[in-house]
Here is the input.
Amino acid sequence: MSSEVAIILSIILITTSIISLASKTISLSLIMLFYSCIVLNIIFITYGAPIIALVHLTIFAGAVSVMLLATIVITGEADLRIDGKKNYIISAILIIIITSLIGIYISNRISIIENSGPRGELLEFIWNYRPWDLLVMIIILAASMVTVLNLLSRRGEQ
Amino acid sequence: MLEQSILFTCSFVLIIIGLFSIIYSRNLIKTMMSFQILVFGVNLALFTNSLGGGPDLFANTLVLFSILVGAGVEAVGLALVIQLYRRYGSLDPHMLRRLKQ
Here is the structure.
């Protein structure tokens, strides 16, 4: 894979992140954050990690974006003015065209991922105890879910 | 090797942007977005370690773990933001500090 792809993807990722954080309109920030997440997933797929890209896309572009949107709607911070609509559409079209071109370029050049097994003692240890790692991940997600439910319950407000 | 250094520089820039935005943000939702950018940078840095012929499985495991921990922290942070808004009616950290006094 040539280094031009890495440069272009890095520039797009940094640009969308800066626009997301520097924008005063919070809806535009959310859209740009979504785009930066997609560009990061393209980087993962380009360099041979489709499973990580799938998990990343599901969690960050799916769940976390919806949570952010729900928070924006609940707190009433969304700025739904009509003035910025043209900017949203232009930026969306531009980023879709750029990412589509990169995707076409990548799909022509992507190589078949080698199904290589674990190498070395540390990797064999991690691979053998993989179910425990998954169990820890499930415990972390369950703990965060219980914490969120406790925080959002209205019992402690009085 | 060149791609590795480019992506590592990109991840470093993302981490720096996220940190500065967390420090200077005036909105708690923006702070959580900055944290997400920071997590993106960390994930990219962890993934970049596997590119130069290194151990790919180890890096992939670390990235998966980092993604899940990041999502959990983000969920708890957003719940805290909603709770703070219900209690104080504002999302400005400076205003919240003044209201607390």
The helical segments of chain B are 2-24, 28-48, 56-88, 93-100. Chain B has a mean pLDDT of 84. Residues 13 and 41 of chain B are 8 Å apart (CA to CA).
